[in-house]
Amino acid sequence: MSEAVQTVKAADAGIQSINTLIAAAKSLASSALSSDSTTATALMTQFNTVRTQINEMASDAGYKRRESARRHQRLAHGQIRRDGRLELGIAGFDGSTTSLGISLAAGWVSGTTVTASTIETAMTALDAAKDKLRTESASWPTT
């Protein structure tokens, strides 16, 4: 039982960290909207670094790394075995940037012009990613 609880706690910590990284990426994109082209290009590079960190966090989240690569674990069901022991099933979801719809940032600047529509598209994708994480984690048990 404690192994299952630790798995859920570790995955929850991973999701919280991914949410923090998504907020950081959104802050970078927001700053790029009001920046000159040189600064916006630097912020785009930082955004892509944060995106890589999200993938690393999604890959690392879990207790004793028992999860599948790029999977967060959550408690799915419990079943009492014939010997009276409780057997807990663990299921997961893909928390990678690909699954969350966070694309590699490109085209934030065209020549010396900041391309607001491209940056706003990235910000919309970040909002959708946060919503997906919230939806997935809403069905988790409390630990």
Kindly summarize this structure in a few lines.
The chain is of the alpha+beta class and 143 residues long. It has a single domain, classed as f41 fragment of flagellin, N-terminal domain, CATH 1.20.1330. The protein contains four helices and four strands.
CATH architecture: Up-down Bundle
Measured distance between first and last alpha carbons: 11 Å
Radius of gyration: 18 Å
Could you name the CATH topology?
f41 fragment of flagellin, N-terminal domain
The arrangement of helices and strands along the chain is HHEEHEEH
Query: Quick one: how many beta strands?
Result: 4
Report the helical percentage: 55-70%
**Strand adjacency order, main sheet:** 1-2
> What percentage of amino acids are in beta strands?
15-25%
Topology:
Blueprint: H1 2-33, H2 37-60, E1 71-80, E2 86-94, H3 97-100, E3 109-110, E4 113-114, H4 116-138
Antiparallel strand pairs: 1-2, 3-4
Helix pairs in contact: 1-2, 1-4
Descriptive account of the structure:
It is elongated and about 70 Å long. The chain has a two-stranded antiparallel sheet. Strands 3-4 form a two-stranded antiparallel sheet. The protein has a single domain (2-138), classed as f41 fragment of flagellin, N-terminal domain. Strand 3 and strand 4 (113-114) form a beta hairpin. Residues 63-76 have low confidence and may be disordered. The chain starts with a helix and ends in a 5-residue tail after the last helix. With 143 residues, the protein is α+β, with helices and mostly antiparallel strands. It has helices at residues 2-33, 37-60, 97-100, 116-138, and strands at residues 71-80, 86-94, 109-110, 113-114. Helix content is 58%, strand content 16%.
